[in-house]
Amino acid sequence: MTGGIPIEVSGLGKRFGQVAAVDDLSFTVRPGVVTGFLGPNGAGKTTTLRMLLGLVRADSGTATFGGTPYAKLERPLETVGAALDASFHPGRTGRDHLRVYATAAGLPRQRIDAVLEQVGMSEYAGRRVGGYSLGMRQRLSLATALLGDPGVLVLDEPINGLDPEGIRWIRGFLQQLAADGRTVLISSHLLSEVQQSVDEVVIIARGKLMRTGTLASLELDRAPRTIVDSPDRPALAAALGAAGLAYAEGRNGFIVDEPEPGRVGHAAFVGGVELSELHRMKSELEDAFLALVGEGEG
Ligand SMILES: Nc1ncnc2c1ncn2[C@@H]1O[C@H](COP(=O)(O)OP(=O)(O)OP(=O)(O)O)[C@@H](O)[C@H]1O
């Protein structure tokens, strides 16, 4: 394996007619962690990955692997492994598919068996790809990306279409690749899909960067609030109003715009209201994500 080198995107832009698919996008993906490249459908994820891999020409900016654009890499397959809109010849076996790639890249034959083993596909390697399930195709594209034992992996929606067992498997697999020191970038339009697989996120909407950072930092985005409830909700509403606390009535009580449950408890005490519930609301990661990408829609 070549060392995990960072992916560096700087001022990247691409228009398709009137549509700014990618707009002045800059971010860095570092080795040793799994990074989720997230955004709603049409946000520009695939276009960005295609520019990164030299499949689409950027209108502006640069996308490099440790400073070198993909097209200038000396040994591309041994540096970057990619799985993007995988298309397979349905009549070919999984092993034949890998053989074509290995031969084209001048990679030793042993790599074929090694990657089949790695993705748990040895048993199915002799079957035609046309009969593969979506999960098996996902594993075969992953095997293809791994052929050159690259230090960088760029995978477009690798979790999409996997069953729960497959999702559990790929989580562990990606984490191991990162733990080995590789740079791992995976795209998804659902934060919940990759939440347990990624350490860091790059979030885009409408071609623009919304946020980069750790998952934990994203969670902090939502101001904590307090959940409170009472057997006498009208009295509680009055007490909150009297204390000048803004709230919304939810199914499980009132959601108060106040991070300190103590302040809410005090307001209830002053109003002589009995409480049946009082706790700090944990921010939902998906809420934070939707709030972020929603802002991008404006
Ligand atoms: N070849 C193309 N010609 C014209 N418009 C395009 C082309 N490729 C992408 N677009 C447009 O650019 C925008 C970004 O598309 P892109 O496929 O990169 O988004 P995405 O985030 O990958 O979405 P998805 O998750 O749905 O694949 C969209 O508005 C799309 O319609």
Q: What distance lies between the first and last C-alpha atoms, to the nearest angstrom?
A: 43 Å
Number of domains: 2
In CATH, the architecture of the largest domain is 3-Layer(aba) Sandwich
How many DSSP E strands? Answer: 13
Report the average pLDDT across residues: 90
Instruction: Characterize the main sheet.
Output: 6 strands, mixed
**Content-based structural category:** alpha/beta
Q: Please give the radius of gyration in angstroms.
A: 24 Å
CATH topology of the largest domain: Rossmann fold
Bound ions, cofactors and other small molecules, one mention each: adenosine-5'-triphosphate
Overall 3D form: elongated
The portion of residues forming beta strands comes to 25-35%
Protein name: ABC transporter ATP-binding protein
Domain ABC transporter: 7-231
GO molecular function: ATP binding
Family: Belongs to the ABC transporter superfamily.
Walk me through the structure.
It is a single chain. With 298 residues, this protein is an alpha/beta fold. The chain folds into 2 domains: 7-219, Rossmann fold (3-Layer(aba) Sandwich), CATH 3.40.50; 225-282, 2-Layer Sandwich (Alpha-Beta Plaits). Helix content is 35%, strand content 26%. The protein has 11 helices and 13 strands. It has helices spanning 45-52, 76-79, 94-105, 110-118, 134-146, 164-179, 191-194, 215-219, 233-242, 261-270, 285-297, and strands spanning 7-16, 19-29, 34-38, 60-65, 80-83, 152-155, 183-188, 200-205, 208-214, 225-229, 247-250, 253-256, 277-281. It has a 6-stranded mixed beta sheet with strand order 5-6-7-3-8-9, with helices on both faces. Strand 11 (247-250) and strand 12 (253-256) form a beta hairpin. The longest helix has 16 residues, at 164-179. The protein is elongated, with a radius of gyration of 24 Å. The protein starts with 6 loop residues before the first strand and ends with a helix. The mean pLDDT is 90. Bound molecules: adenosine-5'-triphosphate. Residues 16, 19, 21, 39, 41-47, 189 line the site of adenosine-5'-triphosphate (ATP).
